[in-house]
Amino acid sequence: MRTAIGLMGEHGYEGTSTRDIAAAAGVSVAALYHHFPSKLDLLREFLHEAHDVVNGRLAREIEVAGPDAVDQLDTAVRTLIWSGLHDDWARRAALVSWREHGRLDQTDQRLIAKKRRQLVDMVAAVVERGVAAGEMHCDDPPLAASAIVTLCITAVDPFADRAPSMAATIEGTQRLAHTLAGVGNGAA
To answer: Which of 75, 80, 121, 153 has its CA 20 to 30 A from that of 114?
Structure first.
């Protein structure tokens, strides 16, 4: 699966054949079909697993960030961006996750959308805690959270040759997240 997703991240779903995957993985096409009846089945399994991993990671990191909602927000941004940028394969996998989920059937698309909604809900809960504590001033925490998660997910873009460092990406996105959540005395 790792090999297939790396190839799809580099060449796109359509640009990656089952033969390419088998050759790069050092297995026969028959062996690949034994584990995954189709390229789409492989993509489906990856997308579900990837979203489960990121959701679990985000929940854990927010929990250990401490009680301060601003620290939790910064941790959420850092975690989401790190998940997609920590190495070349992660960047490719994030691109596949971002652009290829529409290939799934409607049932799986809804399941993936539900998992993405869980990311937004976790960040919205952080913003709501910040509002309740007076650390954030935001009229619509779910909308702010949706924008924040979108910013983090799209930090991995096809223009990687012009991308800033991961640290600069995290720092800049945290500043934007603070603005969206109304950190300090501003209102969003």
So the answer is: 75
pTM for the whole structure:
0.88
Distance (Å, whole) CA 77 – CA 134: 20
- Work out the angle between the directed axes of helices 141-153 and 166-181 (0-180°, nearest 10): 170
* 17 half-sphere exposure, CB direction, 13 A CA radius: 5
CATH number of 40-181: 1.10.357.10
Q: Which residue has the tokens 């996750």?
A: 97
Residue among 169, 113, 100, 99 nearest 146 (CA) = 113
Q: Report d(CA 53, CA 39) in Å as an integer.
A: 21
Q: How many residues does the chain have?
A: 188
Decide if 123 contacts 73 (C-beta within 8 A). yes
The DSSP output letter for 26 is T
The full set of domain ranges for the chain reads 40-181
Per residue in 132-171, pLDDT (tens digit) is: 999 999 999 999 999 999 999 888 775 556 667 888 889 9
Residue 117: exposure state from Cβ atoms within 10 A (0-12, 13-18, ≥19): middle
pLDDT (tens digit per residue) in 102-134 = 999 999 999 999 999 999 999 999 999 999 999
Burial category of 80 from C-beta neighbours within 10 Å (exposed 0-12, middle 13-18, buried 19 and up): buried
